[in-house]
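Q&A log
Question type: sequence-to-structure
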Amino acid sequence: MQSFELPDEPIIKQHRPQDLRKYSIVPIRAAADRRIKPAAMRVLLTVCSYANRAGLCWPSHANVGKALGVSRQAAGRQIRILRELGYFKVVKNHSYGKTAQIIRVVYDETLSNSNLMDAIKFEDLPPTLQAWKEKETIELLNQDKEPFNNVAVTASRKDEGELVNKAYIARWISLNRQAGFSRIATPEDELVIAELAAAGVTVPVLDDIVRATLASVAGTSREPPHRIAAFRRQAIDAILKRDHAPPLP
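Response status: OK
Response body:
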């Protein structure tokens, strides 16, 4: 009987992603703030180097300490001091089993955490909050735990152009995705759709407005709105204009 040997277990090497940070954007008020000692300034520079365009970052104390050649505890002390001085705010603690905090670098002192998070773009959210938002969206669109088909739901109405909450939200997300933009739904979007439906706005009317907006930003650095509410005024104006238009000869 021919014998054989089992191969050795493969050695799987994990490679850390390449560090592409080249600069750090720091709140300008820190330059003249005599309360910030050298150790805290170094931590401020380091943490700010992780921040995205919304000012959010989630470096662990250990990674900050490693970058500066100090202990995790020493880095944590300086982060706490900078929080007390108003340069950092904690947006969320220990999300999804992660130990790193989600930190906001406070560039604009007049902007609260809630206002910032309301205005933030989906792609600027930390991965854990993106996952939470996507889960929330799925639950919103499928509250009854039953699959639905956009075309079937819409066609089931007497008027095929009538706005239907879940169906149109899914349609709006799909239109944005086709144009290369990621969008999520919120309870506010359902309320807006209900309001527009009550005002007599139809699917073709809202479609035309959304498509025109998507076409207007194509090939530019601008983005279309993140909320359906941004189309409310245009949609209602379109219905008023239609209802008050003189009859055709």
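Response note: Strands lie at 56-57, 88-92, 102-105.
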